[in-house]
Amino acid sequence: MSRKYNQSGFGLALAVFILIILAALGAYLALVIPIEANENSEAIQAERAYQAARAGMEWGLYQALRRNLCTASQSIHLDQEMSGFSVVLTCQETQAQENGQTLSFATLTATASYGISGQQDYVQREVKATVIL
Length: 133
Hints:
The chain is an alpha+beta fold and 133 residues long. The chain has one helix and four strands, in the order H-E-E-E-E.
């Protein structure tokens, strides 16, 4: 007694379905991977801009606290690793009275930027500090 089975081609339909799912997944990954890479690049540039602003701030604090210099506005040139970034340091000196004493304060602002404002690769970070002279 042998039985004959009637096959309807379900395996072919399953294979086509799996190929469609894999093609859709591949298309999705092809769209997402470049976006992720661009976001990572922007995050790295933003962090570099922040570090450039911090470097400018540290230099300005040294000038204000050790050399007693508070220049209204100056550009700071960074080394080759941070080339492309421009850092502008501003310093504003103010005075206040407290318990009959005159205190001098310096408010420093370091602004680091990369690229041209309005362009896709433009990034800017700013750091502020106020110290007693």
